[in-house]
Design a protein that fits this description.
mainly alpha; Multidrug-efflux Transporter Regulator, Chain: A, Domain 2; 3-stranded antiparallel beta sheet; 6 helices; rod-shaped; Chromosome-anchoring protein RacA; DNA-bd_dom_put_sf; coiled coil
Length: 189
């Protein structure tokens, strides 16, 4: 019983605690000017010391904590609202706490998803390689066909050239005796 009374007293003392801008900034790992900007943007209650430093109560600290968590998830200040949110610290922590079994299940599901994605990626890579090999094979076949055609044309041209050469030789042999006759006729005179 006494312990419960002490804890309630400690909680009330904690609620009455005033937070300085620098303390909040260190708690969140941000610049003190960032905390001041949040306070001014959301028009959160604060008191100002004689040196001009901000001091905030526990409720304002909880709101700033909520803002910090929201900005860490990537939200912009204009998208952050305090409606439908409980700003007590235990509820924020409760929403973030996960049991070891749940964490193991999530990791197992994540592992299964990674394996599935890996198989899909491997299949896709195999398909791409197969397609490229087929395309290269097609190009090689086309080049082989072209080489065969060129070889046939070259062979036919060689044969045509040989036959023309043979005709030319045969014509030369027919004309040579005439030349001999002419020459022999010149000498016989």
């Amino acid at each position: 019983m006494k312990r419960n009374i002490r804890m309630k007293g400690a909680f009330k003392a904690m609620e009455k605690r005033m937070w300085k801008t620098k303390e909040i900034a260190e708690e969140f790992g941000v610049n003190p000017s960032t905390v001041q900007r949040w306070v001014k943007y959301f028009q959160l209650p604060y008191t100002s010391t004689s040196q001009g430093h901000f001091e905030m109560d526990q409720k304002t600290f909880q709101k700033l904590k909520h803002i910090h968590l929201e900005t860490k998830t990537g939200k912009k200040l204009r998208d952050i609202s305090f409606t439908n949110t409980s700003l007590s610290e235990p509820s924020i922590l409760k929403g973030r706490m996960v049991s070891a079994n749940q964490l193991d299940e999530r990791f197992e599901r994540l592992g299964i998803q990674l394996d599935h994605l890996d198989r899909k990626l491997q299949t896709k890579a195999d398909e791409v390689v197969e397609y490229q090999v087929l395309q290269q094979r097609k190009e090689i076949n086309e080049l082989n066909d072209l080489v065969v055609q060129l070889t046939e044309r070259l062979t036919s041209m060689e044969q045509a050239l040989i036959s023309k050469h043979e005709v030319a030789i045969s014509m030369d042999t027919e004309h040579k005796p005439m030349k001999k006759r002419r020459l022999s006729g010149i000498f016989s005179l």
